[in-house]
Amino acid sequence: MAGENSIQLPTRRKKYTVKSLMSDLKKMGATPSVTDLIGAQCIYYEWALCERDLGDDHPVTSHLAELLDFMQHGYETQLVNGEFWRTKDTPAAAINAALRGRPTEFLTHVLDRPADYVYNLLEQAIASRKSELDEYAKIESGIRTELEADPDNPHLWNKLRLLLWLLGQYKGSSEAFQKAKRLGWDASSAEFVAL
Question: I need a labelling partner for 131 at 20 to 30 A (CA). Which of 50, 58, 168, 180 fits?
Fold first, then answer.
């Protein structure tokens, strides 16, 4: 499970396609901070290269632009706005939804970055994810202490929901979200939460 601190790097590949890279991200339970890293270091480069070589109206270029937007903005926005609240709303499900309906030409597009570069980037992403898990595990007890003092605060329940989701505890996250909603939490009036 992604919530455990035993995340394993996927097998080294001879080449990476968009689909294989995203598949590896799903296996590691990539959160918005991880996809932002991969987006900035890999997908942005690929998009710029395709825009130059294929043009901005080419399907691969336009789908790379949309994927980059998801990886750097859309994923986090969806999470913060409460779009991922069911137990089945895992990082893999979010990535699957972002790839759903994409053409084969895009999914099988071979990345220009060398396989060793991509693999090393994935190693960095896993180290980042493990560090994230350690950090959020420490924060969890503080939020639970705050909730003991103020159990009817929907914003604290939402913070717990986000934290548990980032820790890979999707059932607990779903329960915290439902409690936050019952207490009146709404994305439009929510307190700012930085991930």
Answer: 180
Give me 186's structure tokens: 């709404």
Give me the chain's average pLDDT, please: 92
Tens digits of residue pLDDT in 29-53: 999 999 999 999 999 999 999 999 9
| Claim: this prediction has a pTM higher than 0.85 | yes
User: CA 147 to CA 69: how far, in whole Å?
Assistant: 34
Residues in the chain: 195
> Which residues touch 149 (CB under 8 Å, ≥6 apart)?
none
In a 10 Å sphere around its CB, with 0-12 CB exposed, 13-18 middle and 19+ buried, how is residue 56 labelled?
exposed
